[in-house]
Amino acid sequence: MNSSGGNQELAPQPTPPGKRSFNKYGVAGLLASSATRGWSNLAAELRSHSGTVTWNNPQPDAEVCIDVRGSRSVITRRLDGVIDSTVSERGTIWLRPAGVQEGLIDMSEPVPAILHLYLPPSRFSSDHFGDGFNTTAIRSLHREGGFHDPLLAEIAYAIMSELEHETSAGRLLAETLALSLVARLIQNHAGASPSDLANPASREGLDRRRLARVLDYIEANLESDLTVARLASVACLSEFHFSRAFKTAFGESPHRHVSARRLERAKDLLCDADRALVDIALTLRFSCQANFTRAFRRATGQTPAQYRRSLLA
Questions:
Q1: Distance between CA 68 and CA 40 in Å, rounded?
Q2: Do 303 and 297 touch, CB atoms closer than 8 A?
Q3: Is residue 214 within 8 Å of 235, Cβ to Cβ?
Q4: Among residues 158, 160, 155, 149, which one has the least CA distance to residue 189?
C-alpha cells in the first residue's frame, strides 16, 4: 500500500521507520500508531484509506501492508512503473521492498483498516539472526501485490492487537513478532532456504545456567526498558534464536513472562497508597495510565484503583 518515506535528508540520527510515513500522511485516516511505544526496528500504523495516493521519493524501509478488516475494494498499485491490481479481502497482503522510487495506489472504494508495517534494512542482518545468517537473501526480496500468507497475516493481527490494546511488555512482543515477520519474508519471499536461518543452538533451547541468568536479569530489571536484544545478549544467542530457545526451555515466550511479572509487580506497587497510578503505569513501561488500566483489568478483573481499594478496605 502506501509508502513509508518522505523528503527528509539523511542525518546522523536516522528518522525511525514509520515516522516518515506519519509526517507524510498526517493524522487523517490514522487509527493507531506505534510512534509512542518505543518499538525498535519496526514501526506500525493502522490506517483507513480512500482515493489515490502518490509519491515520488526513494523509500528507505521495506513495507508490508495487510488488509485487516476486508473491503472488496479494487486496489491498483504502480511501483516504479510496474502495475498490479487486487480485489482486497481480509488477510490480503502487499509487499514493497526498500528502494522503490515512485508509486501510485488507487482504491476503488474506501478501505477501513490497513496495517502498515515498516522494516528498516538493518532489521535484515546477522545482528538479529546470528553469524550464519545469509545476508544476501534480502537483496532478492521483491514487490508482491495481493497475495495471501496465513502466517504473515497472523503476525500482523498480533501486532495490530498490541497497537490497539497495549500490554505491559509490548515492546518485547513487537520485537519478537518483527523477527518472525522478517524470517517469513526471507524464507518465502526472498528465495532463501530454511538453512539460511538455521542454528544448532536454536534446537537445543537454553541450558539451566543460561536460563537462570536470563530470568534473574528480567526480575532485576522489570522496571527497566527490557528488549529482546538485551535478553539475547544475556543468553549469548542471536535475537531470533533466543526468542525460540526461551520458549522451548521455559514453556512461554519472553513477552508473556515479562508481562506477567510486571503485572505482579504492579500489585506490589499498588500497596503504596500514596503512589500515583500514572507513576506506576510509566514505571512498568506503559505509554499511558489508560493502557495500564486496561491491561490490569484484563488480567485481574479489576482496575488498578479498584484493586488498591480492596487492599485498603
A1: 23
A2: yes
A3: yes
A4: 149
Q: What is the pLDDT of residues 300-310, one digit of tens each?
A: 999 999 999 99
The DSSP-derived string for 59-88 is --SEEEEEESS----EEEEEETTEEEEEE-
Rounded to two decimals, the pTM is 0.81
Give CA separation, 178 vs 81, 120, 161, 171, 243, in Å. Answer: 29, 11, 14, 10, 11
Q: What share of the chain is helix, strand, coil (3-state, %, to 5)?
A: 45, 20, 35
What is the C-alpha to C-alpha distance for residues 119 and 63, in angstroms, rounded to an integer?
Answer: 6
Extract the C-alpha cell encoding 112: 477501513
Contacts of residue 234, defined as CB under 8 A and 6 or more positions apart, other chains included, come to: 210, 213, 214, 217
The answer to whether 61 and 122 have CB atoms below 8 angstroms apart is no
- For residue 6, count CB atoms less than 10 angstroms from its CB and return exposed for 0-12, middle for 13-18, buried for 19 or more: middle
Q: Which three cell numbers stand for residue 206?
A: 537454553
- Grouping H, G, I as helix, E, B as strand and the rest as coil, residue 306 is helix
Closest residue by Cα to residue 162 from 172, 154, 152, 170: 170
The beta-strand segments (E) located in the chain are 30-33, 43-55, 62-67, 74-79, 82-87, 93-96, 103-119, 144-147
Residues 6+ apart with CB under 8 A from 313: none
Q: How far apart are the first and last CA of the chain?
A: 54
pLDDT tens, position by position, 34-78:
998 888 889 999 999 999 888 787 778 889 999 999 988 999 999
CA 133 to CA 135: how far, in whole Å? Answer: 6
